Amino acid sequence: MYYTVRHLTKFVYSNEISESIMETRMHPRSDEYQRCLAFQLSVSPRCRVFSYRDHLANHVHHFDIPGQHEQLVIVAESLVEMEESLPIPSFLAPDAWAELDSMVRDGDYWEFLFPSEFTEPTPRLLALADELDVRRRDDPLMVLHELNERLYRWFDYVPRSTSADSPIDVALEQRTGVCQDFAHVMLALVRTRLKIPCRYVSGYLHHGTGGSKTDRSVSTATHAWIEALIPQLGWIGFDPTNWLTAGDRHIRTAIGRDYSDVPPTHGIFRGRASTDLSVAVRVQPSEGTPLPDQELPVPEDWSKLVEKAQQPPAPPPPAVSYARYMQQMQQAQQ
Asked: What are residue 250's DSSP bridge partners?
């Protein structure tokens, strides 16, 4: 299966700023079941874009815009080939816990076992762990399958109910959140009670006509889920937002300890201004690799969206002069 992924991000500043420094993690990874065949990152205002891979092999692009500007538009376009993943069993052998502990002793998984910025255990989290019976029993895979379903049923998915920097207690208190919150809560529970190495995954989910009936995440936004280390199987993805195991509809862009390691965009700017952020994502099936002299087909409505995003912000209405203001006030009092 081939997918084209288009990801538009637009920052509009309330006042003109003098410099933007930004890094992005929008380049899909290439691994056993996924290959990124083409990637292009466009930035407006135009600038030179550099890239590197971090210690987890995530693609990171970064750039600096030193001139004055009132908005920043980033458009990432990818072509990804997804192979059908092997079916995930429901359970493992009785000695799977011992085999897992042996893997952990012999490997280097410490950063995926200890709490991170958004996965610190709290009294609310520990109470949820007791309520959902999160403990070492049966086998690791069976427990994770059950936890994946129970979190799906325990939480309600509500867009914009939390923010990117919300601690897990916000979602736990209101029992609502977005995919990032589902992932952080599951990471914290698995690391704290099960001692299974697990990591945060940032990426995209294709919904389309073949989507599961349990899909409730927004198709026009990025997505997040977790991966846990399972004996005999390796890293297996669990998507508690949609009660899924990650398969050929889950497109991975970056992995880390939690969201703070792998946000799609992360940067700073020089100036005094507030920021209005808008994001649009589109994942569509593709017929395959285009010829060398062809570009990825772009839907007409997406072209219009990009063109509209790159238009400069509308100028503010002209200020009323003080003399004119006083004249209006005198007329109003007469």
From this structure: 205
Name the residue among 197, 186, 194, 184 with its Cα closest to residue 112.
197
Q: Residue 272 has which token pair?
A: 């005094």
Burial bucket for residue 149 (CB in 10 Å: 0-12, 13-18, 19+): middle
- For 322, which DSSP code? H
Helix (H) or strand (E) holding 101: helix 96-106
Q: Please, which residues bridge with residue 244 across strands?
A: 239
Question: At a CB cut-off of 8 Å and minimum separation 6, what does 332 contact?
Answer: none
Nearest-CA neighbor of 266 among 18, 22, 12, 13?
22
Q: Does residue 209 sit in helix, strand or coil?
A: coil
- Nearest CA to 280 among 74, 61, 79, 78? 74
Residue 334: which pLDDT band, with cuts at 50, 70 and 90?
very low
**Average pLDDT of every residue of the chain:** 89
- Using one digit for the tens of pLDDT, what is the confidence trace for 30-61? 998 999 999 999 999 999 999 999 999 999 99
